[in-house]
């Protein structure tokens, strides 16, 4: 507790919360399309075209892939702060352009650009927080990024529900097209994100650059000032000494990219890629993106679907607080294990429920439980692990590689769901996700290290020592 008192908690939380606003925009932009989907599909006349539906829903993920692939390299060259500011600007422009789209190509292009902003924010926000946060509260602070993602998701769900006018049960496509929802309402769902993206752009001007990035570029005096603001002179001196030791060791081993793909780093990289891809292939995000299909298969109409989506968002928020409370107490690995085996069980029950054609409230219960297990484990803890397990000298590049793998997995998940849902049925699709979650549980049990309570430099020594002994 004495050590805790030495830190300027107000300053640390401020800069971490500002950085985590990237997560807020990520969450909003990620989910807003689910509420707009019933209306823009009718407007663009693609409601009966599975290929165009899948493309419109998943094109942003290709943008995420591009943003994530370039984020790490650009962040290592230009710093974390500049890229955060840039991502806020892209969020603003793409959100306005999506709502203003008059054709399918314009809509798809705007969603692609918005996806680039998501990819940048998803990579940079947890990386920045991990690099400025003191070790004893790092897990909690990185998890704050997931909290803002969840708040963004819930915000999009609530905004969608408030904007959309009630849709009568069994309404024809022509009625939806000629309604306020079909002409204007779906546009305001996208335009609403311009407000927080503008706030993020302004506030990100006032956060400092990452001290670890400053040290990696030999700007030790600037790094000293930032660290002193966080924890005082003694803390700054101690942290800089750790940076110098690990930094000196890295320069003789070549560039960051070659080191990342060296035999010494191979197992750490494999762990990062598998964890990133498993977060998506666990299947939970299809509940947010394809809520219309999932809830309609359970017997609900469009207006009821929008309300049910908000219920899942509230569950997502509540269980994220469970992760924040437990991540630095139980640790990363136990939470990942609980989440993966819990999802395997819930998906099995959910799949069987669809097979036996259960309807109504019981289906919402199962969906909420699935969201809960994900929100307290795979959702937030994946980002904590990715931000922690890689050495400082390759963290930017490694995060780029892992988040690129995450978005490839997310694209495949989102693009394939309409086809899986058509071929296997909703029940069969969730049974498939249950098998994937069981496999993920086995991987976590055997290969994931525990990282709580250690500095990033201590983790580097431990992880690379373990790999060199193999």
Structural class: mainly alpha
Please tell me what the overall shape is. Answer: globular
The number of domains is: 1
Order of helices and strands: HHHHHHHHHHHHHHHHHHHHHH
Give the biggest sheet: none
Distance between termini?
A: 38 Å
As residue ranges, the low-confidence spans are 1-5, 248-254
Number of helices: 22
The CATH class, by name, is Mainly Alpha
Q: Output the radius of gyration.
A: 22 Å
The level of helicity is: over 70%
Strand percentage: under 5%
Q: What's the pLDDT, averaged over the residues?
A: 81
CATH architecture descriptor = Up-down Bundle
Classify the fold: give the CATH topology. Answer: Growth Hormone, Chain: A
What do we call the CATH homologous superfamily?
A: MFS general substrate transporter like domains
Number of strands: 0
Which descriptors apply to this entry?
mainly alpha; 22 helices; 81% helix; disordered N terminus; Growth Hormone, Chain: A; 470 residues; globular
If you had to describe this structure to a student in words, what would you say it looks like?
- By secondary structure, this protein is mainly alpha-helical.
- It has one domain (7-207, 253-468): MFS general substrate transporter like domains (Growth Hormone, Chain: A, Up-down Bundle).
- Helix content is 81%, strand content 0%.
- The protein contains 22 helices and no strands.
- The longest helix is centred in the first third of the chain and has 35 residues, at 9-43.
- It is globular, with a radius of gyration of 22 Å.
- The chain starts with a helix and ends with a helix.
- 55% of the residues are buried.
- Residues 1-5 and 248-254 have low confidence and may be disordered.
């Amino acid at each position: 507790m004495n050590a805790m008192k030495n830190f300027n908690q107000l300053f640390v939380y401020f800069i971490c919360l500002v950085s985590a606003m990237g997560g807020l925009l990520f969450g909003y932009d990620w989910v807003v399309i689910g509420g707009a989907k019933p209306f823009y599909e009718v407007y663009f006349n693609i409601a009966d075209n599975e290929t165009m539906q899948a493309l419109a829903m998943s094109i942003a993920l290709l943008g995420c892939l591009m943003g994530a692939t370039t984020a790490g390299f650009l962040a290592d060259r230009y710093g974390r702060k500049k890229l955060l500011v840039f991502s806020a600007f892209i969020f603003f422009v793409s959100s306005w352009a999506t709502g203003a789209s008059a054709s399918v190509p314009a809509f798809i292009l705007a969603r692609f650009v918005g996806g680039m902003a998501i990819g940048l924010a998803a990579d940079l926000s947890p990386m920045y927080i991990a690099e400025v946060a003191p070790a004893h509260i790092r897990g909690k602070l990185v998890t704050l990024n997931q909290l803002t993602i969840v708040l963004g998701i819930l915000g999009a769900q609530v905004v969608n529900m408030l904007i959309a006018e009630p849709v009568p049960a069994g309404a024809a496509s022509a009625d939806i097209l000629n309604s306020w929802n079909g002409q204007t309402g779906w546009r305001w769902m996208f335009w609403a994100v311009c407000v927080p993206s503008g706030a993020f752009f302004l506030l990100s001007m006032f956060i400092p650059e990452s001290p670890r990035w400053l040290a990696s570029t030999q700007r030790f005096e600037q790094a000293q000032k930032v660290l002193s603001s966080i924890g005082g002179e003694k803390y700054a001196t101690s942290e800089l000494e750790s940076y110098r030791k690990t930094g000196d060791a890295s320069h003789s081993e070549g560039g960051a990219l070659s080191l990342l793909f060296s035999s010494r780093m191979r197992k750490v990289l494999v762990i990062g890629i598998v964890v990133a891809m498993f977060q998506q292939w666990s299947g939970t995000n299809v509940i947010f993106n394809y809520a219309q299909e999932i809830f309609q298969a359970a017997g609900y109409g469009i207006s009821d679907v929008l309300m049910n989506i908000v219920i899942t968002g509230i569950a997502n928020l509540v269980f994220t607080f469970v992760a924040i409370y437990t991540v630095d107490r139980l640790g990363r690995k136990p939470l990942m294990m609980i989440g993966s085996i819990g999802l395997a069980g819930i998906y099995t029950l959910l799949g069987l429920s669809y097979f036996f054609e259960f309807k109504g409230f019981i289906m919402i219960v199962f969906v909420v439980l699935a969201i809960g297990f994900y929100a307290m484990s795979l959702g937030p803890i994946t980002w904590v692990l990715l931000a922690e397990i890689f050495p400082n000298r390759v963290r930017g590049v490694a995060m780029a590689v892992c988040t690129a793998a995450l978005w490839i997995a997310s694209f495949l998940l989102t693009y394939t769901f309409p086809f899986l849902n058509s071929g296997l049925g909703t029940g069969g699709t969730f049974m498939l996700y249950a098998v994937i979650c069981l496999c993920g549980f086995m991987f976590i049990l055997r290969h994931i290290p525990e990282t709580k309570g250690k500095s990033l430099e201590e983790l580097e020594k431990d992880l690379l020592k373990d790999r060199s002994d193999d």
